[in-house]
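Researcher: For the record, we're logging two predictions in this thread. I'll number them. Prediction 1 follows.
Model: Prediction 1, sequence and structure:
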Amino acid sequence: MRIGFFANDDVGVRAVQLTLACEELDVVLVAVPEAGREETNAQLQAMAGDRPFARIGRRLEPGFVRHLRTLDLDYIVLAWWPYVVDRDVFSLPAHGCLNFHPGFLPYGKGMNSNFWAVRDDEPFGVTIHFVDERLDGGDIICQRRITVGWEDTGQTLLTRAKRELADLYLTLLPDIVRGQLTRSPQASTGSFHRRVELEAASELDLDAPTTARSLLNLLRARMFTPSRLTTPPPGALIFREDGETYEVSVSIRRRERDDQRSDTRKA
């Protein structure tokens, strides 16, 4: 099986490592985003070795697409890829184009699913799915639910999603080798959010009615650093008053029960 990788960040590094370690799979291309972290881009370039390696932007050059057509690809794998891929690319592989998505599809389509899962108390997890014309709407191959607790924030969910996606991909490798990936159409329910929605959702209206639950959910949801976002300040909710802007975050820690504290003292 001939695999072309569009790989980004630590998830991309781990996915390429796992694939290179599988003798039945042949990595024939590694592409990284120009705007990706230089550290991981350099790691991926080193891992590519003598294989074709490319740094590419949101819009692919025609020459690069023509080169993809010559590779006789069985799969393209989008491992934490930050850009939407056009049909002239995702339709090239014989067996399909796979995408790593940090959301429990059909919930969390689009961007920042870790934020919306906490704020709106909706299911969260990770999904590997086939790519088609619909944004995050292709058939599901496999997915894993991640439980969200009160001590979680947008950042803890993002970190866990990265780890779980790499582990989920590892379980999928035997099916990729056989070219026998299952596919299940997504339900018509779920949720979808665009990148620009996060900015409006990151500002607290001091006079708007709310509940303690909703406020705590919003505060901890916004405690993460979104990619390529400079305003509002990453990692915090903001509010404004008298011409000043304030940042606010929250820390939630589960208190041990009396019986747990007693057991600890006895030990």
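Researcher: Logged. Prediction 2.
Model: Prediction 2, sequence and structure:
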Amino acid sequence: MNGEKSLNSTNIYHLQQRIAEYEDEEAYKQLFFHYFLPLKSFSYSIIKSKETAEEIVSDIFLDIWVKRKQLCAIEDLKMYLYTSVRNNSARRLHQNKKATFFSLDEVQVEFASPDENAEAILMTHELSFKINTAIEELPQRCRIIFKLAKEDKLKYKEIAVLLNVSIKTIDCQIAIAVKKIASVLNIPIKKTSTAEC
């Protein structure tokens, strides 16, 4: 599991090549397990159904395997996957006639548990609890942007494209999140204006 979490863009592209050129099922599994949970969480934040989110992400990965010969043509697989999840989740919402669009302010976000050993979890339990509480109290828009940036490691530019917001909005929302977490942990931070957020 730790090896899967440390995949970088070079490793990802290498996996893409192995899948496209050699139909390498082991490479496909690594790719699947590396992205499945964060993509499922992102889909759930839009669709509000864990089963449907799982189905959407599974379908996207099935499509990746079916079209594996074209996989090397995708320059930024991470962005491709997140965009596919966003589009398919929004499409499913529309098909279910629950909504024709989604608002960031209504998005529910779940953060994955950190992958640590038992001793580290015990030592940081109180700190983790405080941080998680602070994150849970963030406004919905702020929470999803914080999750995509800090947990899913998307770049601000990628988040801006994905959520159709400005990079300035992302800066402001991250600043709000950091300020909230710092206040809960009693960490003094330099004052910045968030009035224009």
